[in-house]
Amino acid sequence: MGCTDTLVESAIDLLYWRNVKQSGAVFSSVLLLLFSLTQFSVVSVGAYLALAALSATISFRIYKSVLQAVQKTDEGHPFKAYLEMEIALSQDQISKYADKILLYTNTCMKELRRLFLVQDLVDSLKFAVLMWLLTYVGALFNGLTLLILAVVSMFTLPVVYEKHQAQIDQYVGLIRTQVNSVVGKIQAKIPGAKRKEE
User: Fold this and answer.
1) Helical (H) or strand (E) element with 115
2) Is 155 exposed, middle or buried (0-12, 13-18, 19+ CB in 10 A)?
3) In the prediction, which pLDDT does 11 show?
C-alpha cells in the first residue's frame, strides 16, 4: 500500500503543478512524444528515442574515460551506481498488479454484459447515446488527437478546478439537477425503466 500511495501522491503533485519544473518537464516530454507520433511511426519514434539515449550515455562514458585518463584517476564506471541498482519486480508485486488487472477486467466484463443484455433499460439507453456520440467524436478526431487532448486536460483542468472550485461546483450542481430531472421524466414515461429500490 505504501508504494501505491506514494505513486498516487506523486501523480497528484505532478498534475497540480506542485513542482513546476518537474510538471513542466513531464508535460512537455509527453506532448513532444505524442506530437512525434503524429508525424512518425511508433517504431521510428522508439528508435529515435533509443538512439538519443544511447548517444548521450556513450558520449558521457567516453568523456569520463578520457577525463580519467588525462587526470590519471580511477573513478571507475560512471554509471556504476545505476548498474548495481536492483530493478527486478518481485513475485509479490507482479501478483498484486495481476490481481488488480484481473479485478478491473472482470468488473468491466460484468458491466458490459449488463449494458448489452439490457439488465437496466435506462443504463443501456445512456450507453447507446454515449456510443452514438462517440461515433461523431471518432469522425472528428483520431485516437492520437484524443490522447493529446487528454494529456493537456490532465495537466490543466485540475489546476483550473482548484482555483475556481466554488463556481465550477455551483454550475455542475445546476447541470446535475437538470439532467436528473430529465432522466426522472424519461424513466417515468418508459414502462419497466424505473429502478428497483436497493
Assistant:
1) helix 91-116
2) buried
3) 87
Q: Which of 74-78, 108-112, 147-151, 160-164 has the lowest mean pLDDT?
A: 74-78
In angstroms, what CA-CA distances link 59 with 45, 74, 80, 103, 198? 21, 18, 16, 46, 66
16, 159 in Cβ contact below 8 A?
Answer: yes
Answer for the pair 88, 149: CB distance below 8 angstroms, yes or no. Answer: no
Residues 6+ apart with CB under 8 A from 34: 144, 147, 148, 151
CA distance 187 to 182: 9
**Burial 34-47, CB ≥16 within 10 A → b, else e:** beebeeeeeeebee
Q: Which three cell numbers stand for residue 38?
A: 503524429
What is residue 66's three-state secondary structure? helix
The answer to whether 146 and 3 are in contact (CB under 8 A) is no
**Residue length of the chain:** 198
Residue that the C-alpha cell 577525463 belongs to: 67
Give how far Cα 99 sits from Cα of 80, 89, 103, Å.
Answer: 35, 15, 6
Mean pLDDT for 156-160 is 92
> 42 pLDDT exceeds 50?
yes
Name the DSSP letter for residue 77.
-
Q: How far apart are CA 3 and CA 9, in angstroms?
A: 10
